[in-house]
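Our preliminary data section would be incomplete without showing what the modeling component actually yields. Below, a chain of 412 amino acids is followed by its predicted structure, encoded as tokens that our downstream tools consume directly.
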Amino acid sequence: MNKLVVQKFGGTSLQDLTCLNRVANHIIRTRNEGYDVIAVVSAMGDTTDTLIELARSVQKEPAPREYDMLLATGEQVAISLLSMALQREGCPARSLTASQVRLETDDNHKRARIKDIKGDAAREALARGEVVIIAGFQGCTSAGEVTTLGRGGSDTSAVAIAAAFSASECQIYTDVDGIYTADPRVEPSARRLKQISYDAMLEMASLGAKVVQTRAVEFASKYQVPLRVLSTERPDEGTIVTSEALLMENPKVTGIAFSLKEAKISVQGIPNKPTLPAEVLGPVAEAGIDVDMIIQNVPVKGEIDLTFTVSREHYADAMAILDKITPGLGAANLVGDEKIAKISLIGVGMRNHAMVACNMFKTLADQGIALHLIATSEIKVSVLVDEKYTEQGVRALHNAFGLAEAAAGNKE
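Predicted structure:
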């Protein structure tokens, strides 16, 4: 039996028929190298965005069930056309929707979670020597209702399918040729990494590096699926995401990520009491708004300030909630700032190596960049800065930590 690879192709890889034919030829080459292939595909080009606009032109807030029914059609078009392209070239292929594969999810429309993958139809097709083309992004409930996994969900579909079929590798084809030490559009000297750990990749994905969906990396880590990020246009080995990419004994800055989708909120001059953080943050959390970096200062004359961040898209909602509750808490002031950004160093063992954080702070200070908030974990140090200093800060840190040279030695 041949080794199985799962290859995921995003919308940019399938934006027109020329691209679709290129993907078909790529799959055929992989098959000719002796592999069985499952291709997981997204809708072509901007199809999903077009469908969302169409839905909202009919109903301002589309009913979740009907929204999923509509959006799932984009992938169905893509899998059937790709299967036709393969068959035209003499390559046996079969397209399957998520319901035909029995990719079962929970009942949460628009953001469903995968529960199980039966996969019998796909296994039968592979046994017949066919390439299997599966619709990404979509799933079905136990009752047969169509669901979708949220934007970027095809990445998660691909990794989950790779885990269910014990594939030797899950390959994510996108418009970049791997994972870089920083965004090359911001730092031209950024270099591609040969390998990166699941944990470091998860941090980079969650902190602004949108090459792979965060949930897909979580899934890959949980089920130890080797995950490779590469380009359909520049064929090479890309970047492998694995649990053995880095040595824990040596602190190492792998890359820099940044997010411009942050907002800072400060509740100032609140009479101090042990239950205060819960009283302030509880109503925000109950509204489904995630809170990230949090800092509470030492009480001064019996009063404290509580500062935290939320995503910029939830800033107005969070401020509205707090505007209602803070007077009852005796707060002196409520202030917010949407013009901020988060810059993060990603690496291994950094919490136990203070010099990494110290060098980061000194580098930014030398650039005249003030820090609003600081957060650390085992593999990252994050700082909040004024948005206007984002690119300057990223470039300075990339140079200070020698990432261009380090990545050059990390290349194939």
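Residues 64-88 form the longest helix (25 residues). DSSP finds 13 helices and 18 strands in the chain. Preliminary results of this kind motivate Aim 1 of the renewal.
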